[in-house]
Amino acid sequence: MNNLTDMPDLPDIASYAAPIYVALIIAEILFVHLRRVKGSYETRDASTSIAMGLGNVTSGIIFATTVYAGIFAFFLWLYRFAPVKWEFGILSMVACFVLDDLRYYWVHRFSHTIRWGWADHVIHHSSQHFNLSTALRQPWFSFAKGYFVSVIPLVLLGFHPAMIAFAGSINLFYQFFIHTEAVGKMPKWVEAVMNTPSHHRVHHGRNARYLDSNYAGVFIVWDRLFGTFVEEDETHPVRYGIVKNIGTYNPLRVATHEYVGIWRDATLPGLSLQQRLAYVFAPPGWSHDGSRKSSAEIKADFVRRNPDEAGKPGLGGFISTVPAAASDIPDLPSEPASR
Amino acid sequence: MMLLLYLAGSALAIGLIALLMHRLGHSAEHQFADEAAARDAFLEEFPDAGVSRLDLGANGRAALLELQDGYGLIRAMGRFSLARQFALADIARLSRRGASLQLRLTDYADPVFVIDFGDETTATRWQSLLSFDTIGTREKTG
Ligand SMILES: [Zn+2]
Ligand SMILES: [Zn+2]
């Protein structure tokens, strides 16, 4: 048990990480250039990604003494009500880390399946490249989406807010290293338990079969457990990005584009209140007139065009009911959608 | 003060990484080999779009398409490409300078499309096609 004051000062990983990130990005650029490893870099794309990372850290510094301090103070207040309080130690830290990773899985999943969360998270997915710099393409105002409430159960389970923050920062640090094409598949046991570059490539894919899969942070077991795991299939190379890719490198537009989309949709004339709310909270791709497609509809549409693919990983729940001539069209989204 | 130093240092790091990539030749933009390649790339994104006509820009980096229903564009987005279907109502502003056409679109995430056809006749043809304003409220300049 501990009280509110006996937490050790935990290192702030984010403040040590930047030089490591920069060094490894430069190394990856050089290795990709020399064709020693698989991957691709593009000047403007990577510059924008790193600038987004800089904006993310800067926003964290700017709001550290206001918004984030307020959230942390709220958690500290809540922590008083935890019936059991775990002392800081290896076991409690491991438990906290694993439970926080489970929390991350659901927060990440809801970031893909609720448009309000997607407006923030889409930023991370908005590059057509997948390299270490993509990991830094992060949103600037994540606190606005309110997903920090997901931390409440961990606090009430007796984990000190500082311990949870530390677990979260290790989780994000780990995730930097899985944004790469340089590493193929890792040993079987690693691929079975851990989130790996291969699994996370799938997560960044816009191929119909790869949409809405592999939400894991560190442990891929959550996806296996909750039915969202899709294995990378080398016969279907991952095409990175989002269903409707963005055409800008302007960091401000990258940071805000989906919020602007939500605003424009929700303020369309002649909609009911329910329809306006659906434009904010329904899954991305929802539209009041059916003119766009959600991930589920894109998958179903793909299976309709390619009946042979029915039942394959990522397309499992979709049965082709209408026979259609198999086409040689790659498994890309077939229609424009808002994501 | 510390924040300013941090921002300046980070901006310098981004600049140096960008310079490194540029000098190594990683700024090259995608080029469509010919009209068929641009058409194939467009149909990969929109397999149901009936393409009636496609005009590829002189540098092979952008194309405008007339579809059975509306219009399409495809252009280089760095090493990759970016395709959109659009209607006249999606054009906020259209301007032409010689053989080059610039479309400002209402699409916040893809606001500008520029294509240089290399010949003024094609540019003028597209200008008049896209200037046919069914709403009558948009600004058009020529
Ligand atoms: Zn994601
Ligand atoms: Zn990622």
Automatic annotation (TrEMBL), chain A:
A Pfam family the protein falls into: FA_hydroxylase
Protein name per the record: Fatty acid hydroxylase
Record has Hydrolase as a keyword: no
GO BP of this protein: lipid biosynthetic process; membrane lipid metabolic process
MF terms (GO), sorted A to Z: glyceryl-ether monooxygenase activity; iron ion binding
Parts of the chain that traverse the membrane: 13-32, 53-76, 88-106, 147-174
Topological type in the membrane: Multi-pass membrane protein
Fatty acid hydroxylase domain ranges (all copies): 93-228
Top-level taxon in the UniProt lineage: Bacteria
Any single Gene Ontology cellular-component annotation: endomembrane system
Keywords linked to the UniProt accession: Lipid metabolism, Membrane, Oxidoreductase, Transmembrane, Transmembrane helix
Native organism taxonomy: Bacteria, Pseudomonadati, Pseudomonadota, Alphaproteobacteria, Parvularculales
Compartment(s): Endomembrane system
Species whose genome carries this gene: Aquisalinus flavus
UniProtKB/TrEMBL annotation, chain B:
Tree of life domain: Bacteria
Protein name: Uncharacterized protein
